[in-house]
Amino acid sequence: MKRVLSIIFLLLSLNYGYSQVYTPLGLPAVIADNMVLQQKINVPIWGWTSPNEKVIVNASWLDNSITIKADEKGKWNTKLQTRGAGSKKFSIQIVSQDEIIIISNILFGEVWLASGQSNMQMPLKGWGSQHVAESEETMENSLNPNIRLFQVRQNTSPKPLDNCTGAWLESNPESVAGFSSVAYFFAKKLNEELNIPIGIIHSSWGGTKAQAWVSRKKLHEMEDFWNETDSLDINYANFKKTFSRWDDAMAKIKGETVIVYSKEIKYPKYVRMGWEHTAQPNLFNKAGLPASPFNTK
Fold first, then answer.
1. What would the pLDDT profile of 57-95 be if each residue is shown by its tens digit?
2. Which helix (H) or strand (E) holds 67?
């Protein structure tokens, strides 16, 4: 009996260990169905899987498959040589040990990033009483599978990210309505002039500083921004320390309201909501923490 229990325990332990390192095969949102790839270049493709696992990439336009080995963190990347622009549709098959991802309806053409402030962000349907000239007629005539739109959901990060939230959509009255009017008209003009597929990635945020769209490294090359970049580094370090203290405090706090709150409201939402809305802020004060994690004094 002891031997049987030992074997069961061993199998459970092995299964637990496997579950700890197993990572599902995944891709960033921008590498997905309906995407447009830049023509005639080596396009980067990347993703995630279990550490050190082999990944095979089969592109329908290439004669040979590409085999990559993920690194110790499960990250992998490669490049695919694309053909000239056209309306022919292609696909990519990505295979790991246990999973397969198929990306379909891919076109080759010109891909652009549209970024900026509110004048770029304003959607084709307008904002309230602010209207875009000829928008209704434009939306009605926007059906065009050779124009693809990718809307990046707004997010902040102190460092570059290798993923975002969004999806590639073919141009139609529904997809263009909430898309950047400037970016759409630009894509429409390019498609008419070049007669090739156009992919537009829209990532803008009204009222943001130009510095927010430039890497820290580039900003720090300019003396005028030295104080600003140094200040950002200090603020971010304090911010991380404060959240670490909050994590420790939450682990010690008993109370259904706070536990549910901490599970359902993840860190990105704290930025939008603030901890002043928590039902039991006094519990955190008992742990020696401020009423808001953003008040680090």
1. 999 999 999 999 999 999 999 999 999 999 999 999 999
2. strand 66-69
Instruction: Write the burial class of residue 163 (CB in 10 Å: 0-12 exposed, 13-18 middle, 19+ buried).
Output: middle
Bridge partners of 177?
Answer: none
- Single pTM value for the model: 0.72
- Record the tokens describing residue 136, joined without a space: 């209704």
Q: Output Rg (C-alpha) for the chain, integer angstroms.
A: 24
Left if phi > 0, otherwise alpha if psi is -120 to 50, otherwise beta: which for 285? alpha
From the list 108, 92, 102, the residue with the least C-alpha distance to 60 is 92
Bridge partners of residue 80, in order along the sequence? 43
**Interstrand relation of 54-59 and 42-48 (parallel, antiparallel or unpaired):** unpaired
CB 148 within 8 Å of CB 35: yes
Within 13 A of 191's CA, how many CA atoms are on the CB side? 23
User: How many degrees, rounded to 5, is the angle at CA 222 between CA 216 and CA 226?
Assistant: 65
